[in-house]
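Encode chain A's predicted structure.
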Amino acid sequence: MPELRKSPILERWVIISTERGKRPDDYKREKPSLKGGFCPFCTGNEDKTPKEVLAYRDPHTLPNEKGWKVRVVPNKFPALQIEGDLAKSADGIYDKMRGVGAHEVLIESPDHTKNLQHLPVDHIESVFWALRERCIDLKKDSRFKYILIFKNWGEDAGASLEHSHMQLIATPIIPKRAIEELNGAKFHYKLKERCIYCDILKQEIREAKRVIYQNDNFIAIAPYAARFPYETWVLPLKHVASFENTPSGCFHSLADIMKNVLLRIDSALDAPPFNVIIHSTPCGEPDLDYYHWHIEIMPKLTRVAGFEWGSGFYINPTPPEDAAEVLRNIDVSSLEEINRETEKVEEN
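Encoded structure for chain A:
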């Protein structure tokens, strides 16, 4: 019998279509392959991108040349432009403003063939440190109200370049989705004087059936009202409202859990395209007692169609409890060993 489940944070219903009961093999498709060819993100092509705004480099290497490990550059084709003021105005009953903002690309590695989960944990940690640095810097600009960090991997997930990267977009308004999350969390806090995300974590840890992986500082779960099959959330175990305020000692754990979870998704679903989104507080907000930053990972296995657009409901053919069990039971140590052996072969 299908179930209707409601998100405890958002006023959003999901249909868990248990009768369809899709297993991992039901989603497998042709594995994405790298097409190669010219890539502006590859080492040696630094002059083909805008000048870097941040890079972690080998000693004695120069900006905008070889020798970098992680590199952040302005997007060559930005969604929003950094120059100018907002110039808010009315057009009859409509409101408009200039498309002012920032749009940056974080290139995770010089290696065209490596996705985030294929990098060493220490390298992934440096990716998150770079994101943190850029958030802190961009939040100094009073024009910006929100910074969205996301990753698209694979054409079906919206990636226009196959070299693994993330993007940061600073917007002059707070996105509707962020407002809905903030309001839902605030409503719960007013009723119970507790963070809804902290309450979710306590229940998920107690029940354990939707827990995928946990380390000292983070936990990965399949959310109760998952919109998509194998949707996964990564949350800090201790309450932290904004990504950039995460204690410095936790970033290694964050890198560990992201590598672990993405390797599990790769193994279970044959390296599907996916989206990663970091949900954090708006610019200028203090540490909020009612909000808890987190990461959402969404493999692209199904399509949003007419029913979803028309109703606002999502249909998920894999119960999150089943997805969590599949991902939880994957032997990640063997996957990491395969990665290490592959790296040795490539080096030789």
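The mean pLDDT is 91.
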